[in-house]
Amino acid sequence: MIKKGELYYPDKNFQKKALINNRAIYKKASANPVKFWEGLAKEIFWQKKWKKAFEHKPPYFKWFVGGKINITESALDKNLEEKKNKVALIWEPEAVGERQRIFSYYDLFREVNRLANALKKMGAQKGDRIGIYSPMIPEVIISMLACARIGAVHAVVFSAFSPKALQVRLQDTEAKILITADGYFRRGKVVNLKQGADEGIKETKVEKIVVVKRAGNEIFFQPDRDFWYQDLIKNESDWCPAEAMDSEDPLFILYTSGSTGKPKGCVHSCGGYGVQAKFTAKWIFDLKEDDIFWSTADVGWITGHTYSCYGPLLNGATFVIFEGAPDYPDPGRWCEIIDKYGITTFYTAPTAIRMFEKYGVEYPRKYKLDSLQILGSVGEPIDKAAWQWYFKEVGREKCPLVDTWWQTETGGILITSLPGIGPFKPTFAGIHFPGVNFAILNEKGKSCKIGEQGNLVILPPFAPGLLRGIYKNPEKYLETYWSECGNKIYFTSDGACKDKNGLIRIVGRIDDVIKVAGHRIATGELESAIALHSDITECAVVGVADEIKGEVPVAFVVCKTDKSAENIKEEVVRQIRKEIGPIATPKEVYLVKDLPKTRSGKIMRRILRKLFTSEELGDLSALSNPESVEEIKLILR
Ligand code: WT7
After folding, report:
1. Is residue 280 part of a domain?
2. CA 451 – CA 410 distance, rounded (Å)
3. Are strands 318-322 and 60-65 parallel, antiparallel or unpaired?
4. Which of 49, 197, 270, 341 is the most buried (most CB within 10 A)?
5. Which residue(s) pair with 156 in the sheet?
6. Which residues pair with 267 in a beta bridge?
7. Closest ligand 1 atom to Cα of 409
């Protein structure tokens, strides 16, 4: 890497070999983004070509209208032509001694077809939603693809979400089939996932459960309802015709946190999402024939969908997935995996980088890590120290570090510097992906000047992979994304600014969403969970800075009974784990007599947030109860 001032550039050698190394692509794409994406769309397989590339009826838009496609044909069938025996997927189990499992494109193709046939026999049809609640095992990828094969819409729910969180999502999708596993390994212990699934399907439409045998733990099994995955596919044919999908038909629903309590089901399309997944993966991770790509995100998140399933497969690439915890059995585990498989591109989140930074340099220094060529970061702003540590200790100062901005809603990476072009600048994600038009707008709706912070928005024609709606909730779709700046501008809810080179820095969310270890959590979601506690009359949750997790939630609660602070904390934590899952556990729960409020009764979360920073509280005279702030200050001392 070459350093010029604050900027880093790929060296000549890297640049020469990179798939994209000429800046001209940006200009070409901007001149006619629709034509640009159309050109890319031609490189994936369509059963029938589209009639119109882009159609806009605000707040709705369509890509590749009239086209017929099945994404699994490009991801699997097409790869059989030249890559039949190429390794597609490597699965690394948590236990160090256990054998990895390796699937060639042909293996994966057959397994997906078998499961697709089995799902059909179970009654699954095009357009049906199918829930997936699974650990990181090959069968989760196979399940997603099998759904796509038959035109069923998969809705993956993160396996560490609580049964209650699963239930809410299953209710919304009205799925009749759920695919899960008996259990999985986490830090050497077996987690009984099936038990969670059994609980989660209560009061839902789920009639059948497909259970992958993974951990061999004892589970409750209801013969007419539960089916072993391994039995189901045993006698199925290796061939299942790929359902003809409309380009705009939904491929999957993935739930994410909105500013209110209820999760939003982001709907992604077959055609546009596929095109974007392929080319963002290809160009940003510079996927070439011999590369081995590893994205550490769980399939429960959008990163897992796009870069641990569709993106690599659409490029005929080899990729790794890992079942376990990053630091188990010791903090060298990830480095060991990098060396073991000769990972060339490694994609992870700042929170993990900060955790390893804390464990110490002795871990990465014990390993060679010399196969690495590109590093990636995603999920939250990466601070300078973490960037430098990652760049130096993991990338050994020779790997371009792509800081990639995107959202569950955008379906794929939309802001980053391309590895063969650069420049890379710590704390700046980079520039728009070719063919995507961003702006940063101030309160008056005008473009911000250099350094001025404003709202990050996407302008037409947006991106082919941007969400098409919130499942069964058009009002929320309109209100969340298409109201702030009018119905022709997509509002990201992120604050951003540009430097003199045009590089975009993401400052963070401007709504009530916090990023806890990269996971997106709405403070409103936590508040709704806490409010279910019968002794609690009022509560407020705010995000505060954390050295490793970036941000963590802290809760303030007002109780009607006289419970001890200790007890209430325990109960609130239990409540949140039950409603959402351990990732949302608040760092602190403060029992207070009153919450700061305006005269109209609105809780002033902004003041609570400021109590954790060095910022001035400002004028409190507008509050109806300024004394509440004094009380809270005493508690925090
Ligand atoms: C939010 C979206 C997209 C996959 C994982 C997160 C924040 C994401 C970056 C980055 C600064 C980032 C934004 C965004 N974010 N990437 N490179 N730098 N912030 O998906 O859970 O839907 O969260 O994550 O605030 O809006 P998500």
Report:
1. no
2. 25
3. unpaired
4. 197
5. 132
6. 253, 469
7. 22
Q: What residue numbers bound the domain in which 621 lies?
A: 532-636
Query: Does 274 fall in a domain?
Result: no
Model confidence at 621, pLDDT cuts 50, 70, 90, reads confident
pLDDT digits (tens, 9 = 90+) for 72-130: 999 999 999 999 999 999 999 999 999 999 999 999 999 999 999 999 999 999 999 99
**Residue 106 included in any domain:** yes
Measuring from atom 3 of ligand 1, which residue has the nearest CA?
A: 407
**Residue nearest atom 18 of ligand 1, based on CA coordinates:** 381
- Beta-carbon count within 10 A of 175 CB: 28
Q: Of the candidates 220, 252, 284, which is a domain's last residue? A: 252
Q: Mutate which of 264, 494, 507 to test ligand 1's pocket (most atoms within 8 Å of Cβ)?
A: 494
591 in a domain, yes or no? yes
Which pLDDT score, from 0 to 100, does residue 227 have?
Answer: 98
Residue identified by tokens 């209100």 is 479
Question: Average model confidence (pLDDT) for the chain?
Answer: 96
Q: What is the CATH number of the domain that holds 248?
A: 3.40.50.980
Residue 547: give its domain's CATH number. 3.30.300.30
Mutation pick for ligand 1 pocket among 406, 415, 503, 525 (CB with most ligand atoms within 8 Å): 406
Tell me how many degrees the CA angle 347-350-351 measures, rounded to the nearest 5: 120
Distance 378 CA to ligand 1 centre (A): 6
Q: Based on the structure, what is the number of domains in the chain?
A: 2
What's the 379 CA to ligand 1 centre distance in angstroms? 4
Q: Which of 202, 224, 252 is the last residue of a domain?
A: 252
Residues in a beta bridge with 404: 378
With both helix axes pointing from N to C terminus, report the angle between 193-200 and 163-173 in degrees, rounded to the nearest 10: 50
Helix (H) or strand (E) segment spanning residue 458: strand 454-459
- Return the ∠ at Cα 292 (arms to 109 and 435), rounded to 5°: 85
Name the residue type at position 136. Answer: M
Q: For residue 430, how far is its CA from the centre of ligand 1 (angstroms)?
A: 14
Largest CA distance in the chain: 74
What is the reported pTM?
0.96
Helix (H, G, I), strand (E, B) or coil at 278: helix
Q: Which two tokens stand for residue 470?
A: 């919130």
- List residues near ligand 1 (CB under 6 A): 256, 301-303, 378-381, 403-408, 429, 492, 494, 506, 508-509, 515, 520
pLDDT, mean of residues 276-289: 98
- Dihedral sign computed on CA atoms, order 136, 141, 146, 151: positive
Dihedral angle over CA of 392, 394, 397, 403, nearest 10: -90
- Tokens, residue 571: 């109960």
Nearest CA to ligand 1 atom 1: 407
